[in-house]
Amino acid sequence: MKLEPKSRAGAHSGDSLIRTDPVLGDEAGTRLDRWLALHVAGQSRARLKTLILEGRVLVENGATEAVILWDPSQGVKLGQRFVVTVPAPEPATPLAEKIPLTVVYEDDDVIVIDKPAGLVVHPAPGNSTGTLVNALLEHCGDSLSGIGGVRRPGIVHRLDKDTSGLLVAAKTDVAHRALVEDFSTRRVQRVYQAVVWGVPKAAAGTIETNIGRSNRDRKKMAVVRDSGRVALTRYKVLEAFGDVAALVECRLGTGRTHQIRVHLAHLGHPLVGDATYGKPPLAKLRHWPEAKNAADSLNRQALHAGVLGFRHPTRGDDLSFSSALPLELARLISILRISPI
């Protein structure tokens, strides 16, 4: 069977391909993850479920094609054969790397970083180096190792790779436990600035929905009705740029994956530069090439974590930090302020 490169989601050199025997008659209807656990040696059911959600399990579809399966619970069918891509082993623990960091605040318990867009927060399959965790291990030394877990030492919350702004990490177990508790009970202040396409009809409002994996694309999050987790975002329009775009402030009540991006897209106003959750209004931009060029050249979504406030985990005093918009976002806003007419 020939596997097209686009079908092998996330495949890299060093990965191994495991082809299964066909599904027998009395096995039809068995959950995919359960069936694979019985037929793929050396892989647990939990691990295989993760591989499915990562798009690493294919079902043969004729002589030359393979289709990605995304749902671990779907039933297998008589005669189906599957191809499982198992990633090459990665280091058990992240390695310290000399990566420049903008440190806003640091003491014996916590460190606050102003993260640039493009920097991944923690190692993940296929992305084991060059992350904020690698940089923190170098900056903080051995004291950080294992705080909050081997693979994500010190990490309390995340920012998407292409979101910039403020992030706090813990340097001790006591600090980590206290910060995790405060994040989970919504005692942390997080304020973002976003540039969105279009202008929300209501100048301010609250978006409260469930967010979970998209049924259409398991790599994306979506507003879902009967599953997922409750997510709450409060927004306020700070400035409108005609009817083409707006600068919006977002305050997080919860911290779900891609929450602001999903909620604003659900509102009908996706982030500028976010190719995953929305597209620019090309008709409106036809006579405004400067704005279109500025948006196209971002190479990131227009989202910045500008304010972070939290209670110090050991002293108990309140800390608050702010971060100015990066130059590329400030430039975008300056261009949007110039009327195309």
Account of the protein in words:
The protein is an alpha+beta fold and 341 residues long. It folds into three domains: 5-86, Roll (Structural Genomics Hypothetical 15.5 Kd Protein In mrcA-pckA Intergenic Region, Chain A); 103-184, 2-Layer Sandwich (Pseudouridine synthase); 189-336, Pseudouridine synthase (2-Layer Sandwich), CATH 3.30.2350.10. Helices cover 20% and strands 27% of the residues. The strands form two sheets. Strands 5, 6, 7, 8, 9, 10, 11, 12, 13 and 14 form a ten-stranded mixed sheet that branches. It has a four-stranded antiparallel sheet with strand order 1-4-2-3, with no helix packed on it. A hairpin with a 6-residue loop joins β13 (303-311) and β14 (318-322). α1 (32-39) packs across α2 (45-53) and α7 runs antiparallel to α8 (327-336). It is globular, with a radius of gyration of 23 Å. The termini are far apart. Residues 1-10 have low confidence and may be disordered.
A few lines on this structure:
The protein has eight helices and 14 strands. It has 341 residues and is α+β, with helices and mostly antiparallel strands. Strands 5, 6, 7, 8, 9, 10, 11, 12, 13 and 14 form a ten-stranded mixed sheet that branches.
Helices, strands, pairings?
Blueprint: E1 16-19, H1 32-39, H2 45-53, E2 57-60, E3 66-68, E4 82-86, E5 103-106, E6 110-115, H3 132-140, E7 164-170, H4 173-184, E8 189-197, E9 204-213, E10 221-224, E11 229-241, E12 245-252, H5 259-266, H6 282-285, H7 289-296, E13 303-311, E14 318-322, H8 327-336
Parallel strand pairs: 7-13
Antiparallel strand pairs: 1-4, 2-3, 2-4, 5-6, 6-7, 8-12, 8-13, 9-10, 9-11, 11-12, 13-14
